[in-house]
Automatic annotation (TrEMBL):
Name of the protein this chain belongs to: DENN domain-containing protein 3
GO cellular component: a single term: cytoplasmic vesicle
Species the sequence originates in: Hucho hucho
Record carries keyword Hydrolase: no
Region described as Disordered: spans on this chain: 73-96
Keywords: Cytoplasm, Guanine-nucleotide releasing factor, Phosphoprotein, Repeat, WD repeat
Biological-process GO terms, alphabetical: regulation of Rab protein signal transduction
InterPro entries named among the record's database cross-references: cDENN_dom (IPR001194), dDENN_dom (IPR005112), DENN_C (IPR043153), DENN_Domain_GEFs (IPR051696), TPR_DENND3 (IPR057977), Tripartite_DENN (IPR037516), uDENN_dom (IPR005113), WD40/YVTN_repeat-like_dom_sf (IPR015943)
GO MF assignments: guanyl-nucleotide exchange factor activity
Quaternary structure and interacting proteins, as annotated: Forms oligomers. Interacts with 6 of the 7 known isoforms of 14-3-3 proteins.
Amino acid sequence: SAVACVVVGAVSSTLRELYQQGKIKELPLLETEVLQVHAPPFVTKESVSSETKGQGHAPAFTRIQRRRSFIKKKRVRPGMANGEAAMGSDGGGGTTEDISVPKDLDLIALPQLCFPGGLQIASEQREDSYHYLVFTDVFGNRTHAVVVQYYRPIQDGGHQNGHRLSSKSSHLYTAYGICVISKYPYYNALRDCLSCLLSQLKPSWMGDFEERVKEFSAKLALVPIPPPGQLHVVFSLRPLQIGLPSREDKDRPAVDLDLHLPFLCFRPRQLLQIITSLLTEQRVVLFSCDWARLTLLAESLMLFIHPLVWQHPFVPVLSSQMLDFLMAPTAYLMGCHLHHYEEVAAETDDLILVNIDDGTVSSSSSDGVDLPDVPLAARECFLTRAEGLQMHYDLEVCHLGSSTDVNDLRAQRKQWQRKLNTHIQNITLELIVNIFREVHDHLNYEHRVFNSEEFFRSREPTDQPFFKKVLDTHIFHSFLRDRLNRKMDAFTRMELSTRTEAYRLKSMTESPRRPTMQELARKYTSPESQLSKRLGASLPNLGEEMLFSVLETFDRTLIGLKSPQKPVRCFKLPDFPPPLAYQCVQNYYQEMITLLDKAISGVASEDSSLLACYHYLRGFVNTVAGKRLDALEDFQNLYKTDTDVFPGELVNALVDSLQDGERAQANRRTEIKRLISRVKKDHERERACHDDEAVKRFQLPKKHMQLEDFVRHVQESGIVKDQGTIHRLFEALTVGQQKQVDPELFRVFYTFWKETEAEAQEVALPASVLEHLEANECVFKLSSSVKTSHGVGKIAMTQRRLFLLTVGRPGYVEVSKFRDIEEVKISSAPFLLLRIPSLKIKTTMRKETFEVNLKSEVDLWHLMVKEMWAGRKMADDHKDPQYMQQALTNALLMDAVVGCLQSQKAIFAATKLAHFDRMKLEVPMMVPKTTSETLKHKINPSLDLTSPQAVDVLLYTPGQLGVSSDSEGDGNPKLWCALSDGKVVVFDAASWSMQQSQVQVGSSRVNCMLGVDRQQVWIGSQNSVIYIISTRSMSCNKQLTDHRSEVTGLALGDPKVAYSCSAEGTVMAWDVSTLQVRKQFRLSCDRLQSVQLCSGTLWCCARDCIMEVWKNGTLHRKISLPEQLCGSPTAFSSFLLYQEKEQLWTACIDVGELCVWHHAELTKPFQRIQLPDCAGVTCLIKVKNQIWVGGRSSGKSRGKIYIVDTQRHTVEKELVAHTDCVQALCSAEDRYVLSGAAREDGKIAIWKVE
């Protein structure tokens, strides 16, 4: 990572004067200047050919360069200079530069940063002293440096041109600063490199000083940066072995420092204060007597708040001349020497002063630190975890003997440190996840809106001061942008893996948020009995409700911290060549490539992430060695091993730098040609994407809204997402007037909705009432006090029932569960001389009618109860709980409409929302008995979307026994569901809760899915790519890009071979472990649409024929469409091989029959089975000895399933499955069948198999 080396020292003329003076009473501080700069390229091809002055390396640094800013030159072609490898361009960052001293590193400021306390002449030899620097350019890119100050005796004539002018030494010592600069934060590694350099410099004399430093810089320039992943790079600089750790993934920086240092300097509570001051963007100043601590602590803090990124000035070391930086008005994190503490505190207000040496955090304001506390649940969890850190290495090694090898000792310590660093990163990531976990619930992805008011309002009152400050920061804004882009980073991974089952189930219902009985019970009952004693003992006296949230947080994230550490592999570089000779350097690269070839051939094909690291590294070395096409081939291999580490920018730069000859060669190699066009496309798409990345805060509308604007505003407000519901709400609010909603009406409606939500939070139900209700019930509506046939009280509505909350001694009287209602009507009860409107509810559970004198509220309650009753009935009939949720939303919207219209037409307006009640009147929704008995449950995969999507493909993957839940992923069976545009939703098939709301595979329609070896799911897309998802991590990090047109079918041969086919007729056989194509051939047919393997031959189904093909691609037999169908415009839609009976079953797109053929006799079908009321078949599957057929009926486009008996060839059952065509069928271990429907319906039905 060292990309430049700068030597700084005292000005020569001053040293000469000092030497001549002899004895000095007071040792002065000297002015410093840059003495040498060594930056790549160290050798170039050109310098060899022209043999400039007989040396094969770049000319030395001149005096003029010392004075000016060091500006980078643009690179013409990559790979000519060996400087590219400079531990400094792993291609993730800017590779378009040649001289790798960072753009805005001003050499004028460098001397004072190398000697931040000034250069002091000494009268005796001093210890070498190291410290660390960070530079930030105008674009926010950081560059890192390690500086060593070491002392040597002043010699006569100073260091005139590096030649000693006299052998007489003086008794005065001057310091030299050697500064190694890199784009990567390899602090420990660079410190070790400098230690090795000093061990060589000390015995030598000044004459070869410059040569040695130059050679040292050139060696470091040969070291490649390890790719993200589990591969570290190790090299030898005598006497030490030095290791460069890799980044864990593309989004994280490498960690090469000791992350427990802040825990040794501060107590966990103080650390939380410092983290809070960063999250709230304060002006923070670090102080220490030790310059090295400043940067190490500042960098650790940056890692603690990851993936949030500090966006402000970051200068951990300020020299004494730079203290005016602290007057800057913006947020910043800076550091300076402890002896400036009083001066800084007195000069500037509102600073957070962090004294590293004392472990204190204070404020420069007279009234002390005004920092809000971190939210309680997250805070308590962090404090408990921090107590458990094992930070003392001595305890770790007290049972071991003393090793005599320094490198063994270092390796042992490194391994311990790595483990501790991982633990600390997990704890700090967990803190960030616990603070911001619920942001997700207040985001609207479609319109890129964050409802900040709503989020803030739903925080605990004690946590609100913290969020009040955080929500407006830059750091939080860019975090929001990543969430809205659905970035799969460390935060998302931990947040997903630690979601509770309760949270998943809650997110399955789109109901408006209200506290459940369980949450209310926590509020009003004592939780002592349920407390975890161990944790409870360590907590302060919290309110009970808070205790629960702390405990839940603690349990929930425990799983997130157990993630096992991946084993680390090291790639040892060959010994360095003479680094200033061009030919030697080229040979060195070749030697590295040979070693990498050997490493690649030794890796098991299952270990694809390690293979990816080696390919990346070899691609990188090939780039630097000028072998661009080989490099591109290596990067192409990342698609099959791990696309997550694909270095887009590097490959893009590489493609741009191809010469004409190379381009012509690339065009002849299909893999590379495809990679080039793909990289260009991706690059263009990325550039286009950056424009619409803004995050909006929800705001009430300011102008009149027509339907489209109204839909957007309601969705942004978070009240309801579903377009159909919003259209009905628009009708209701615009009854009898012009079709637009004015902003004032919207404001009143929104306010009413929010107030009703807030009132529900305040409902206080005594324990005697709570015990009658279920844990997840919520009270959604309370009437005013009314007289009823069972005493006086308030009528309460939950999602399941109506009950009377009696006044006086609060008690519970059940009115009715919605499913038990028989009749609801309005009548009037006599009261003195008046008639008072009342509501009569007749139920199956009670003889007498329940009567409530609801007076003016009666019409609204009448509408609401009828809608809830109709919704309950639909939900029961269709076994689809979402109908109930929708009815509840409708009822609450009616309430809000009546509340905000306050006029004669309010009730009429509310009837527009009585969706299910109207459906009940219009079409009697009778579900046939057979359908009802076979149907188990329905789920809605489009819940997170604004309108239903078609279910294109379904796949069930069985569970894995013995997979513990704390390893990545769980062992439960899963249902994979492909929706439009490459969205895949994953359900846990044990509880049918949504496990992953979407895995994105490209942006085209998915055509087929296949479970392979229980570890991966292959997904064939319309964009001709096969995406591979790991079932453990649920992420898609491999792609097979060999097909030329849309992938239409996938099938498994033996466990080691998979087959795929694409529309234009190509069939490929894949080696599952290496992902290489074993064989491919092309069939001539009209749109090849699926492939299956049956006793050694492949069966391929196209629109116009079905072919049996030998594995080498030779056609064996072919079936054309049955004669009677040849004239009509139809085509095969699917086929099924029934091996036990040696039969083939076929179905056509728009014919309501099945044809059954004998394997031996394929000239015509021996049996044709008519499907009643069927207009076409889309899919067939075999379950036990039944064939399940999915299709559409000829009536109102309805999805039907036919169950056919394979013995008698008759239709056993006819199921009315969906309101739109059945698109997909799959079997869950022959116990259930799952069906998915087209867009009008968009649901998945789960059926019992007899």
